[in-house]
Amino acid sequence: MNDKLRNKETEQLFTALASLKSAEEFEAFFDDLCTVNEIKSLSQRLEIAKLLQAGTPYTEIVRRTDSSTATITRVNRCLQYGSDGYAMVLVIFGWV
To answer: Is the pTM of this model over 0.70?
Structure first.
């Protein structure tokens, strides 16, 4: 994780997430933790990562997800130079 984000509060958050055992538990936690728009934004970024890994052009991703090219670029940058978090999830679920 980026050292700028590493602190007691983020460590507590990730420990709390790691303790959850089902999609239903995650859903309940995220429902309390995040706004509807935040959840939609996170979901959209994962979909963008899937589409980028599949070789989908930006214009098609914009059309399918109604996202901005800036968001697509940010996700692509994470796929290329990030901590491999997207890649790990994409592989786990067979989305690559």
So the answer is: yes
